[in-house]
Write a structure and sequence with these properties.
The structure is a single chain. The chain is 23% helix and 22% strand. The protein contains nine helices and 14 strands. The two termini are 23 Å apart. The model has no long low-confidence stretch (mean pLDDT 95).
């Protein structure tokens, strides 16, 4: 398949780097306009990438479900942890109320604190009335200590502020950008990836989008379009063949699912529980040293699920009203999650180049030519 047969945003990132479809990798389902989580109306994503000297390879990714101006307007939300060797702040409150009102940020494991502070700083500046109550930002992480000086104070609150200010609604850069800058996936250079699916529902159409920070999986596990390519790409794997001490597959994966379909909080949680099925299509078995934590949200029903200090006694109209997809018709949304997550992971791998970081540690990029050969030629399975 040539890139000329694809919409430009499906074949390449804004920078021109190939996405997975440009390699002829087949995928199920119908993607949205940009094949990105930003196909969901209102969703905006921004990156701040920090590459400095020989040892800083990190950054921050910010996602705003309703854009900068509508921070504070609740979305239905639910989270799920496949393996808890990781962190996503704010999930206790999401579990309690089923709602999300603040930006979501993703960074490295040891930068959760400054990014959390940065979100509070941004909200205090841009939405002071909201900040006068309380703020429980959602900040998630994966571990980039192989390539990045993770113990150094390189990510600061102002980087979270800058990532929020950088959000866009449109095509997104992928690979070694934002929080994904220093991440590895299946022994190759990993990082940030995204994809979307359009779901028809009677006369309506909705979009399900996935944003992935991919930092998981052993090389031998990698599977693309059902082909176990990883077992044929075992050479040049410094993460597992050198003197590095971490077990293969360590590192973590964060996934954010967004949709404009009207869903209840429990239905959002059910979407988050389907994320592992999309990850599993790429080969992972979910290692103990990988924190695999997922968040799903719905931008429908604005005005509902608010939790702010009450003023006066309730009136006759002081009720929430939510419209939702019936549980018996939710399966096609589960399918969209699985499809979008699978493609987002592969986009993170394909839209990448090799990277050298701290102490000379090196991660190779997924070899595009060999992947094409393995998907199109004869090989042992």
């Amino acid at each position: 398949m040539s890139t000329g047969t694809l919409p430009s945003a499906h074949a390449a990132c804004p920078s021109g780097r190939h996405r997975a479809r440009a390699l002829g990798i087949p995928f199920d389902g119908t993607p949205g306009r940009w094949n990105a989580i930003t196909d969901v109306p209102g969703v905006e994503v921004g990156h701040v990438t920090l590459v400095e000297g020989d040892a800083v390879r990190t950054g921050v990714t910010a996602l705003l479900p309703r854009g900068r101006d509508a921070v504070g307007t609740a979305c239905a939300a639910g989270s799920y942890s496949l393996n808890g060797n990781g962190e996503m702040t704010g999930t206790a409150w999401i579990e309690e109320t089923g709602s999300l009102t603040l930006p979501v940020c993703i960074t490295n494991t040891h930068a959760v604190g400054p990014v959390h502070r940065g979100v509070i700083d941004w909200v205090t500046d841009r939405h002071p009335a909201l900040a006068r109550q309380w703020l429980l930002p959602v900040v998630a992480e994966t571990w980039d200590g192989y390539l990045n000086d993770i113990n150094g104070p390189h990510v600061r609150p102002e980087h979270a502020v800058a990532a929020i200010e950088a959000v866009v609604h449109g095509p997104l850069e992928e690979g070694s950008v934002g929080g994904g800058t220093g991440m590895n996936c299946y022994g190759f250079k990993g990082g940030s990836g995204t994809a979307s699916r359009v779901v028809g529902y009677g006369p309506d159409q909705y979009t399900v989008g996935a944003l992935v920070q991919a930092n998981f999986g052993e090389r031998r596990e990698l599977t693309i379009a059902g082909v176990p390519v990883g077992r044929h790409l075992l050479d040049d794997n410094p993460l597992e063949d050198g003197d590095w001490l971490a077990p293969g597959g360590a590192g973590s994966v964060i996934v954010v699912i967004a949709t404009d379909a009207p869903l209840l909080p429990g239905q959002c949680k059910a979407l988050a529980r389907r994320v592992p099925m999309g990850l599993g299509r790429t080969g992972t078995t979910g290692g103990h040293f990988s924190g695999d934590i997922f968040l799903a949200l719905s931008t429908a029903n604005p005005g509902a699920l608010a939790s702010t200090f009450p003023a006066g006694e309730p009136t006759a109209d002081d009720y929430d009203t939510l419209r939702s997809i019936p549980w018996g018709r939710i399966d096609r949304f589960y399918e969209a999650v699985v499809q979008a997550v699978e493609e987002a992971v592969l986009n993170a791998l394909v839209a990448n180049t090799r990277m050298t970081g701290r102490d000379g540690h090196r991660t190779p990029a997924l070899p595009h030519g060999r992947v094409r050969e393995l998907l199109g030629g004869d090989h042992d399975t």
